[in-house]
Design goal:
Layout (H helix, E strand, L loop, with lengths): L20 E7 L5 E9 L11 H17 L5 H25 L4 H28 L4 H23 L1
Antiparallel strand pairs: 1-2
Length: 159
């Protein structure tokens, strides 16, 4: 048959990671980190460009998703929830696509789509604040971020 003798696990066989991985921490809502998504090793702080718009739009989409989970479900709010999650996450998705464009004209067209999605998100944040006054302060914070994204994207489209 074969050797059925069990071996001790070799703890020295696996190398220990020397670099900590950078990533995005996601909390389960009660303050502790439930899991962390990591995709690249941490390098020196000055080695990374200080302004990463793709990361900023991803964080914005994540904030929209977390915000939408606090909106009470109901016939009026369900439509608002679907709209804001769709448009809020599309800003980052479309910008990722814009970064892969082959021409300046293609980039501008895709960036304009991002701009439209950001404006739509800003509109639905206003509607949610009107629908749920208890969430108005957080909606206002996200509204300001959407307005900043709109200004940045509008500048990209003009250049």
């Amino acid at each position: 048959m074969g050797n059925t003798k069990q071996q001790k696990p070799n703890t020295k066989a696996l190398p220990t990671p020397k670099k900590r991985l950078a990533g995005v921490s996601y909390s389960s809502g009660n303050g502790d980190n439930a899991w962390v998504l990591r995709d690249e090793p941490v390098t020196a702080p000055q080695a990374r460009h200080p302004f990463d718009f793709e990361e900023r739009t991803a964080v914005f989409g994540e904030s929209i998703i977390r915000f939408s989970k606090r909106i009470p479900r109901g016939p009026g709010n369900d439509r608002l929830i679907n709209q804001i999650v769709g448009s809020g996450t599309s800003v980052g998705a479309n910008f990722c696509e814009a970064n892969d464009c082959v021409s300046k004209k293609d980039f501008r067209y895709t960036a304009k789509r991002c701009l439209k999605e950001a404006k739509e998100t800003r509109f639905f944040l206003r509607m949610i604040a009107a629908s749920e006054p208890s969430l108005a302060e957080e909606a206002r914070r996200l509204y300001r971020e959407a307005a900043e994204l709109i200004r940045i994207l509008a500048t990209m489209c003009r250049k």
